[in-house]
Write a structure and sequence with these properties.
single chain, 165 residues, alpha+beta, 5 strands, 13% strand
């Protein structure tokens, strides 16, 4: 049981870090490695100065939905971890971690919704930027998709995890 507890805690921390990176980093859409777009900024690399020059993304309804859902996923997962730590030290033996699991599953569903909206509406989100056929999805987009099953899996594990001692 101690190994399962360590595994689910490590899984939770890894998915939380991945969620945070997917939400804050700047590569949801990439053009030729020199330009990219994320949930907050559109950036291009300036060879002369060797720095990234960024401007705020144009706020569309779809982009705002993705932003809100990804931030909610981070909040749900963070809240879930804090509740888990609280339950670990205050809950009586034999009880299950239902609320923690529910928060993790909500985090997975909000991340799923955000990634799905970005997948289906990337033309509207990136409408005024370069030609979309020249670009591709970046690693943060894929991180968001990888987080979805991991969050749901950890939520299911929390449902079955019982406090022993």
């Amino acid at each position: 049981m101690a190994y399962l507890l360590m595994f689910v805690t490590l899984l939770h921390l890894i998915t939380l870090a991945m969620l945070f990176i997917a939400t804050m980093e700047k590569s949801w859409w990439v053009w030729d490695g020199m330009e990219n777009s994320d949930l907050w900024y559109n950036c291009r690399f300036d060879n002369l100065t060797g720095t990234w020059l960024c401007s705020s993304s144009k706020e569309t309804e779809w982009l705002q939905a993705v932003q809100v859902l990804m931030v909610l996923a981070v909040v749900f997962s963070s809240m879930s971890f804090l509740v888990f730590l609280g339950q670990l030290f205050t809950m009586s033996r034999g009880r299950l971690f239902y609320f923690t699991g529910l928060c993790q599953i909500f985090a997975g569903l909000t991340a799923l919704s955000a990634a799905l909206i970005y997948t289906l509406h990337n033309k509207e989100i990136l409408q005024d930027l370069k030609e979309l056929t020249l670009g591709h999805f970046g690693y943060c987009f894929f991180l968001a998709w990888v987080c979805v099953p991991l969050l749901v899996l950890s939520g299911i594990i929390y449902f079955h995890l019982r406090k022993k001692e």
